[in-house]
Amino acid sequence: MKLQKNSKIIEYYAFAFFIFLTLFFSGNVSAQDQQSTIEQRVESLSQQLPSVFIRPDEKALTGREDLILLIKRKLFEGYLSPSYQFTNNVFLSNNSRNNDSIFTLNGGVRFSTLVANKVNLFADLSVMLARYNDQNQLDYNAIQGVLGVSYAYGSWSTSLSYSPSFVYNRDLDNRLVNLHRISATVSRGFTIKENVIVSPYIVGQVTPSDPNDFGFYQADIGMQAIIGLRPDLRFSVGPRFYTKRYFDFFEDQTGKERRDSGAGFSAQLNWTPLEKISLSANMSFTSNNSTLTNNTYDAFTISPVVRLSVQF
Hints:
With 312 residues, this protein is α+β, with helices and mostly antiparallel strands. It has one domain: Beta Barrel (Lipocalin), CATH 2.40.128.130. It has helices spanning 2-24, 35-48, 59-62, 249-254, and strands spanning 76-87, 100-115, 119-132, 140-153, 156-169, 175-188, 190-193, 196-207, 209-210, 216-230, 233-246, 259-274, 277-290, 297-311. A twelve-stranded antiparallel barrel has the order 1-2-3-4-5-6-8-10-11-12-13-14. Residues 28-35, 49-60 and 62-71 have low confidence and may be disordered.
């Protein structure tokens, strides 16, 4: 009994330690002249942030019971994830369409603990680098964090998270932008067949930034279908629709408010041949409409990803 109590104390201290590490990296930054350059970093980071919560009803699909919340797991997981991404619109503007390929390497440590079999506390701290094949001026490095809590009740799940990201240039001598994303999610899973789950969701978020060029409010609604092909192989696919309102920076600078809205579609095939290795192929398409013509774009992205992990 005493051991169990001490174990819980260690878990809470570990969670507090992750909060300290993540907040430690915040600070002031200088403005960046190339708007499309920062826009690319913001959009890229939002796609790269790690998923930290697996729904309990995915148990039937994953074949990986050590990942399910009701199964006892180790507190920490270290991971390394290289990927190679192709995009047909690297500047995210239909006025300047360019193909490019990007190599990214993301590595970090994840913390997760379950409280009362329903509440999951999670944290993630990672470092990422991105290197562009053609547009070398877009190369960047980033420190990313996630702090959050999720709650599962039957087929419903909710989560609240804080995700800071600090983006540097290639040489690490200039911090380009800080992002501080706060988001809330509500979703519900419907079991269509023994190996098929459909999960509609709603996400609301606010993302202050420094400099404030890209601070915004955003609301998403979407759906994801997860199909378990084998215990070690699953396919997920789904659409999303969003609306985004930027802070007053654009209106102050141009006299015109910036509002974006759009739709996206994504698909992923994930194979886990071994407990510590997973391979995935990801595809996404986004169509963004903006009140500022230069920020209207369509973009297609495809990327293979390798993920190596170890629990401790």
